[in-house]
Each structure stands twice: as C-alpha cells, then as structure tokens.
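During the reporting period the student researcher (J.K.) took over the structure-prediction task from the postdoctoral fellow and processed the backlog of single-chain submissions. One of the processed entries is reproduced below for the supervisory committee.
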Amino acid sequence: MQPKNFEAFQQQKLSEGYDQALIRNWEPNQVNEAHTHPFDTDAVVVQGEFVLTRHGQSRTYKVGDSFQVLRGEMHSEQYGPEGAVFWAARKN
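J.K. obtained the following structure tokens:
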C-alpha cells in the first residue's frame, strides 16, 4: 500500500534505510537521455506519467505505480505531456 502523503512516504523510506526522500517535478515532454545514478532509487508516481527505458525495454509508469532503479543501472526517461511528479527515496 502506498503512503497517502509525502511525509508518510519519507518516514517509511527512512525507516527502511534510505538516506533521503525527495519530491521530483518534471516538465512536460522532458527527455533525460541514457544515464546512471550513484544511488539506488525507490519511487512512486503521484502525478502525470513517464516512460522509463532500461535493458532495451520501455515501460510507462502512471499515478500510483512504483519503480526502482539500481545504482549504476543505465536508463533513460521521457515524461508525458503533463509532466510528472514522483516521490523518490535514495540510498547511497
């Protein structure tokens, strides 16, 4: 079950050992070319949608969907026509 608000999400993720939780806002139709992160991410989409591409496969995530991206995992992102907002927890 997804937390009802960011504060609950943040509390849950910090208790699970994540270092920080952020609200990420993405502009409509924004594209982030292939890249990696120096941290693990566990996130949930709370507004809009986006396409995450990794390992040669693309998947669209919408409100209520959660996803994980591992540290060093090559991926790209494309945000929908309304942009997107998600809550993201990071673990270094």
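The committee noted the following: Strands lie at 20-26, 31-35, 40-54, 57-62, 66-69, 75-91.
J.K. will present the remaining backlog at the next meeting.
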